[in-house]
Design a protein that fits this description.
The chain starts with 8 loop residues before the first helix and ends with a helix. With 630 residues, the protein is an alpha/beta fold. The radius of gyration is 24 Å and the shape is globular. α4 (74-106) crosses α22, α8 (183-193) packs antiparallel against α9 (202-232) and α10 packs across α15. Helices cover 48% and strands 10% of the residues. The structure holds Broken Fe4S4 cluster. Broken Fe4S4 cluster (MSK) binds at residues 259, 294-295, 312, 333, 450-451, 480-481, 521-522, 557, 559.
Length: 630
């Protein structure tokens, strides 16, 4: 009899309450308190009908004032806000991708960064028409990186990776004029279109939102993912643990937070250095524990098995344990609150990127040329800080789950190879997975992505949706903070197969996988696009015909809106649990939830009732099966 038991949301909350008690003792602020202070939210903002893009306003739309001073109506205002939201997300993901291109460009046999997956580099070079014969691997890395960097500003043509999509998808993008050109151009065009006195036509604004989203998903994010694999290794299944209990009281605890693996990889490297471990012992600790928060955690968990302390809304909790010597951040999703919070404890809040500078932090500028010495300085600073702990404030919740992570597309193809007893596919295609789907053993798949949002009881939507899907034989592929929600609850433990329907349970047993597959960080949603493209090509179907949907039940960031736009534009219906500030315009809401289906064969569903949301997803998957006659 299995002893497997999921960690419940009530258990998370009890642990958090205990940490907040410590916080109260030292006068710490928390997101829970700030949410109260910010409630109720501005209704104009919530509906997307506040315009402050010029200084004649701000203008707010009401029944008495249906147009702003320039004459723009609610539909134009909501549309422009939506496009700006998307552009912010596309810029952010893509700039992360650009940083990784630069890191690849700096790679060298004797440098801080090396090429760990040369085969993947060669495959990409060939795909891009770059000569590989007779070239040293680093010469090739530099050439590929430079070609990638050109994708950001090239004057002509569309993104190189679009060719990975099935021809039918490429044709749609071409016909609808949403095939993304240079990445920076799509971001700049979006800001141009949404400037005062430019577009106010919802169709035009949504079309550009889709195009900017595609420049992220099939451009910047995809390069971020692919080149991270080249540099740090393509993920393979690896065991790890998740939740705050991964922090170790006797050790120096370093928490990495953010997104760019160039930093976290180096920190892990130096935390493992015998010289550093010996120094930690000299300073009274038993060793060094690195754990992670948010997507940088996903990156190092997938490649090194580094444990995951938590997701987005747990970032303050790691400091509240009183046992965090340093929280080291790079970019994105970092609460500025970590500065003042750290001051209430002994924790060092170390910022490292010129892109994310914050008050009350110690700034150690990190760059690829000096990465080794920067990382060493950070690890040493954390060790030196161990002695400053206040033992009376230390409390690490005894709460963690086992997880198997690291399911890149390559890994999924490999583990599912041979699952079907009728055919063992030797060619590394998705055919075994397709066979599971067509036979009905697996009914379909959900790509679960996104953040936490205080508008939803943290993690509940992720976990409840996943539980119901797997019970209905729908496999989950998760990334970002959704993946961490699953891991913390125990859904990435292989024993979670016991929560599945009979078909999915059998697949989990045969392939030795958990029912929720960890596919990485938020840029790694590009991996999901590649998997969908391969499934379509191998089945001869269009992506929009596959019984596959996307879901972001607790999303909060601009990046998530960009992601939603590229997932939908790829032909995958996308289900949101939080409204993207468009309810103030019937035209915009109708376009996004219906009208765009005529363009890209998929659309959004927004439903804040999570039980209804999951039922709608399952219904959609079953509709697609029925249409295929399977
Ligand atoms: S970290 S964008 S809270 S998934 Fe990628 Fe998590 Fe969302 Fe940030």
């Amino acid at each position: 009899m299995s002893e497997f038991k999921l960690t419940t949301v009530e258990e998370f909350e009890a642990a958090t309450d205990r940490l907040l008690e410590t916080g109260a003792k030292v006068g710490a602020d928390s997101w829970q308190l700030r949410v109260k202070n910010q409630t109720p939210h501005c209704k104009f903002g919530e509906q997307g009908i506040c315009c402050r893009i010029c200084s004649m306003g701000p203008c707010r739309i009401t029944p008495k004032a249906p147009r702003g001073i320039c004459g723009c109506d609610a539909h134009g205002i909501v549309g422009r806000n939506y496009l700006k939201f998307t552009a912010g997300g596309a810029a952010t993901h893509s700039d992360h991708g650009r940083e990784i291109c630069h890191t690849l460009y700096e790679s060298a046999a004797d440098g801080n960064y090396k090429v760990k997956d040369p085969d993947k580099l060669i495959r990409i070079a060939k795909e891009w028409g770059i000569e590989t014969e007779g070239k040293d691997i680093y010469e090739l890395a530099h050439e590929v990186a430079e070609t990638g960097l050109m994708e950001y500003g090239k004057p002509f043509g569309t993104q190189r990776f679009l060719k990975r999509a099935p021809q039918t998808t490429q044709d749609i993008w071409e016909k609808e004029e949403i095939a993304p050109r240079a990445i920076d151009r799509e971001v700049a065009t979006s800001l141009h279109m949404s400037h005062m006195g430019c577009s106010s036509l919802p169709e035009a604004l949504v079309r550009q939102s889709l195009r900017a989203g595609l420049s992220d998903g099939w451009g910047g994010s995809m390069m971020g993912t692919e080149f991270s694999d080249v540099l740090f290794g393509t993920p393979k299944p690896i065991d790890t643990e998740a939740n705050l209990g991964v922090m170790v009281e006797e050790n120096v605890n370093i928490v990495v937070h953010g997104h760019d693996p160039s930093l976290s990889e180096m920190i892990c490297e130096y935390a493992d250095d015998p010289e550093m471990i010996a120094y930690a012992k000299e300073m009274g600790a038993k060793g060094i524990t690195v754990s992670g928060v948010c997507c940088t955690s996903n990156e190092v968990a997938m490649r090194r098995g580094i444990p995951m302390a938590g997701n987005f809304l747990q970032q303050e909790n790691v400091v509240l344990t009183g046992a965090c010597e340093a929280i080291v951040v790079d970019v994105q999703c970092i609460f500025p609150a970590l500065g003042p919070l750290s001051k209430c404890f002994h924790t060092k809040f170390i910022t490292t990127s010129p892109i994310a500078q914050m008050p009350d932090s110690e700034f150690i500028r990190f760059n690829s040329k000096t990465a080794g010495e920067n990382a060493k300085a950070i690890v040493k600073a954390a060790i030196d800080n161990f002695k400053n702990r206040k033992p009376e404030l230390v409390h690490i919740p005894d709460m963690k789950q086992k997880a198997t992570v690291g399911y890149s597309v390559e890994a999924i193809v490999k583990v599912l190879d041979g699952v079907t007893n009728t055919q063992v596919d030797e060619t590394g295609t998705t055919k075994p997975l397709l066979e599971c789907i067509t036979s009905g053993v697996i009914r379909g798949a959900v790509a679960m992505v996104g953040c936490n949002n205080p508008k939803i009881r943290p993690d509940t939507a992720h976990i409840e949706l996943m539980k119901k899907c797997i019970a209905n034989d729908i496999i989950i592929i998760a990334s970002g903070c959704s993946a961490q929600a699953a891991a913390k609850a125990g859904l990435m433990d292989k024993s979670a197969k016991d929560l599945c329907g009979a078909g999915l349970k059998r697949v989990c047993e045969l392939a030795d996988i958990p029912p929720v597959l960890h596919m990485g960080s938020c840029v790694d949603i590009s991996r999901m696009m590649i998997l969908a493209a391969e499934l379509a090509k191998d089945s001869g179907l269009k992506i929009s015909q596959l019984p596959v949907v996307g879901c972001a039940p607790e999303w909060m960031s601009e990046k998530a809106v960009s992601i939603g736009n590229y997932v939908v534009s790829t032909g995958i219906d996308t289900f949101l649990g939080v409204d993207p500030y468009v309810s103030g315009s019937s035209e915009m809401a109708e376009l996004l939830t219906g009208g765009i289906r005529d363009w890209v064969e998929a659309a959004y569903t927004v439903e804040t009732d999570i039980e209804k949301l999951v039922d709608l997803m399952i219904e959609r998957i079953e509709e697609k099966r029925e249409a295929l006659g399977i």
